Amino acid sequence: MAAEHPPLQPPDEYKAEEYYADVPEAPDFYADSLHIYSGLYSSVLFFGELREDREPLLRAKIKVSPQMLKALCLLARKHVRQYENSVGPIALPKQVLDAWEIEDGDL
Which domain holds residue 88? Predict the structure, then answer.
Protein backbone atom coordinates (compact mmCIF):
# COMPACT_ATOMS: atom_id res chain seq x y z
CA MET A 1 0.00 0.00 0.00
CA ALA A 2 1.29 3.47 -0.84
CA ALA A 3 2.44 5.79 1.94
CA GLU A 4 0.20 8.72 2.86
CA HIS A 5 1.43 12.04 1.44
CA PRO A 6 -0.35 15.19 0.37
CA PRO A 7 -0.55 15.22 -3.47
CA LEU A 8 1.65 18.31 -3.81
CA GLN A 9 4.25 17.45 -1.18
CA PRO A 10 7.80 18.16 -2.39
CA PRO A 11 9.13 14.88 -3.83
CA ASP A 12 12.46 15.20 -1.99
CA GLU A 13 10.64 14.39 1.25
CA TYR A 14 9.75 10.82 0.27
CA LYS A 15 10.96 8.06 -2.03
CA ALA A 16 8.82 7.43 -5.11
CA GLU A 17 9.03 3.68 -4.42
CA GLU A 18 7.32 4.30 -1.06
CA TYR A 19 4.67 6.68 -2.46
CA TYR A 20 3.34 4.66 -5.39
CA ALA A 21 1.59 1.31 -5.10
CA ASP A 22 3.67 -1.40 -6.76
CA VAL A 23 1.95 -2.77 -9.85
CA PRO A 24 3.69 -5.86 -11.27
CA GLU A 25 2.84 -4.97 -14.87
CA ALA A 26 4.32 -1.45 -14.61
CA PRO A 27 7.17 -1.42 -17.15
CA ASP A 28 10.75 -0.68 -16.20
CA PHE A 29 12.77 0.36 -19.25
CA TYR A 30 15.78 2.33 -20.46
CA ALA A 31 15.31 5.15 -22.97
CA ASP A 32 17.88 7.19 -24.86
CA SER A 33 15.51 8.60 -27.46
CA LEU A 34 12.64 11.03 -26.86
CA HIS A 35 10.14 12.71 -29.14
CA ILE A 36 7.26 14.90 -28.02
CA TYR A 37 4.12 15.63 -30.01
CA SER A 38 1.87 18.40 -28.68
CA GLY A 39 -1.68 19.22 -29.62
CA LEU A 40 -4.11 21.73 -28.15
CA TYR A 41 -5.31 19.53 -25.30
CA SER A 42 -2.52 17.00 -24.74
CA SER A 43 1.04 15.98 -25.46
CA VAL A 44 2.46 12.55 -26.17
CA LEU A 45 5.95 11.57 -25.05
CA PHE A 46 7.55 8.80 -27.09
CA PHE A 47 10.44 7.12 -25.23
CA GLY A 48 12.65 4.88 -27.31
CA GLU A 49 15.92 3.02 -27.32
CA LEU A 50 18.41 3.69 -30.10
CA ARG A 51 19.81 0.73 -32.02
CA GLU A 52 22.69 0.59 -34.48
CA ASP A 53 21.67 0.65 -38.13
CA ARG A 54 17.95 0.32 -37.29
CA GLU A 55 15.03 2.47 -36.24
CA PRO A 56 14.74 3.20 -32.50
CA LEU A 57 12.68 0.73 -30.51
CA LEU A 58 9.59 2.37 -28.94
CA ARG A 59 9.61 1.57 -25.21
CA ALA A 60 6.73 3.74 -23.98
CA LYS A 61 4.15 6.24 -25.20
CA ILE A 62 2.85 8.48 -22.42
CA LYS A 63 -0.02 10.93 -22.89
CA VAL A 64 -0.10 13.98 -20.59
CA SER A 65 -1.99 17.23 -20.22
CA PRO A 66 -0.28 20.56 -21.02
CA GLN A 67 -0.14 21.21 -17.26
CA MET A 68 1.60 17.87 -16.59
CA LEU A 69 4.05 18.52 -19.43
CA LYS A 70 5.00 21.85 -17.85
CA ALA A 71 5.28 20.25 -14.39
CA LEU A 72 7.51 17.53 -15.88
CA CYS A 73 9.69 20.19 -17.50
CA LEU A 74 10.08 22.15 -14.26
CA LEU A 75 10.81 19.06 -12.17
CA ALA A 76 13.31 17.72 -14.73
CA ARG A 77 15.05 21.12 -14.82
CA LYS A 78 15.35 21.06 -11.02
CA HIS A 79 16.92 17.58 -11.08
CA VAL A 80 19.32 18.47 -13.91
CA ARG A 81 20.48 21.56 -12.00
CA GLN A 82 21.03 19.51 -8.83
CA TYR A 83 22.99 16.91 -10.80
CA GLU A 84 25.13 19.50 -12.58
CA ASN A 85 25.83 21.33 -9.31
CA SER A 86 27.13 18.15 -7.69
CA VAL A 87 28.72 16.32 -10.67
CA GLY A 88 29.36 18.89 -13.41
CA PRO A 89 27.81 20.11 -16.64
CA ILE A 90 25.99 17.73 -18.95
CA ALA A 91 27.00 18.33 -22.55
CA LEU A 92 24.57 17.66 -25.39
CA PRO A 93 25.80 17.23 -28.95
CA LYS A 94 25.12 20.22 -31.21
CA GLN A 95 23.28 17.95 -33.65
CA VAL A 96 20.72 17.13 -30.91
CA LEU A 97 20.13 20.81 -30.12
CA ASP A 98 19.87 21.59 -33.84
CA ALA A 99 17.37 18.77 -34.40
CA TRP A 100 15.23 20.09 -31.56
CA GLU A 101 15.69 23.72 -32.73
CA ILE A 102 17.13 24.74 -29.35
CA GLU A 103 19.79 27.45 -29.01
CA ASP A 104 22.58 27.19 -26.41
CA GLY A 105 21.15 30.28 -24.73
CA ASP A 106 17.82 28.50 -24.18
CA LEU A 107 19.42 25.95 -21.83
Answer: 11-106
